[in-house]
């Protein structure tokens, strides 16, 4: 998985590779960054639909596990404004995960579907929705990536024999 600082919707990565997360403290909160897919100033191109063509993913990394909430859901959204508040549409979403399923180090993949049947909009972002008591302590990164690295399958038990 290759991370690009310009493709982060929540959080950031330093030049040294250290991740900084976005703190989620509300039951419905938007990503701090939006991606502008608007037309170029020269040429009058149409708004891009990034989900068309090669498959993309949103890699949502849990840096600090959520506390107090019952469940957390992640949504890829599009809107007409950078604040993600005008004509918002959900492109794709995860199930509502119980907080026990989201320990620190978890990477949640969210497929970047095309906007169809909706028309693509200029801005995309992520919305975090929790149920139960107001979520506390949840720190996340969310980045548009080509593929999601499955951290849980990186390490295998030592001492096995290949025959």
How is the secondary structure organized here?
Layout: E1 8-10, E2 12-13, E3 19-20, E4 22-24, E5 28-30, E6 35-36, E7 56-64, E8 67-79, E9 89-93, E10 97-98, E11 107-112, E12 123-136, E13 138-145
Antiparallel strand pairs: 1-13, 2-3, 4-13, 5-12, 6-12, 7-11, 7-13, 8-9, 8-10, 8-12
Q: N-to-C SSE series? A: EEEEEEEEEEEEE
**Into how many domains do the coordinates divide?**
1
Total beta-strand segments: 13
Portion of residues in beta strands equals 35-45%
CATH level 1 class label: Mainly Beta
The profile of the biggest β sheet is: 6 strands, antiparallel
Rg for CA atoms = 17 Å
Protein architecture, described:
The structure is a single chain. The chain has 163 residues and is mainly β. The chain has one domain: Sandwich (Jelly Rolls), CATH 2.60.120. Helices cover 0% and strands 44% of the residues. It contains no helices and 13 strands. The protein has strands at 8-10, 12-13, 19-20, 22-24, 28-30, 35-36, 56-64, 67-79, 89-93, 97-98, 107-112, 123-136, 138-145. The strands form three sheets. Strands 5, 6, 8, 9, 10 and 12 form a six-stranded antiparallel sheet that branches. Strands 1, 4, 7, 11 and 13 form a five-stranded antiparallel sheet that branches. β2 (12-13) and β3 form a beta hairpin. The mean pLDDT is 85.
């Amino acid at each position: 998985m290759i991370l690009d600082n310009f493709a982060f919707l929540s959080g950031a990565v330093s030049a040294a590779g250290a991740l900084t997360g976005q703190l989620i403290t509300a039951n419905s909160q938007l990503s701090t960054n939006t991606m502008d897919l608007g037309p170029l100033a020269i040429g009058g191109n149409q708004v891009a639909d990034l989900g068309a063509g090669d498959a993309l993913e949103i890699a949502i990394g849990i840096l600090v596990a959520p506390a107090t909430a019952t469940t957390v859901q992640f949504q890829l959204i599009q809107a007409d404004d950078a604040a993600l508040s005008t004509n918002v549409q959900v492109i794709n979403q995860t199930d509502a995960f119980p907080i026990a399923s989201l320990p620190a180090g978890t990477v949640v993949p969210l497929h970047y579907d095309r906007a169809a049947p909706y028309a693509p909009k200029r801005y995309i972002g992520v919305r975090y929705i929790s149920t139960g008591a107001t979520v506390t302590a949840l720190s996340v990164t969310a980045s548009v990536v080509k593929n999601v690295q499955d951290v849980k399958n990186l390490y295998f038990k030592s001492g096995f024999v290949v025959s």
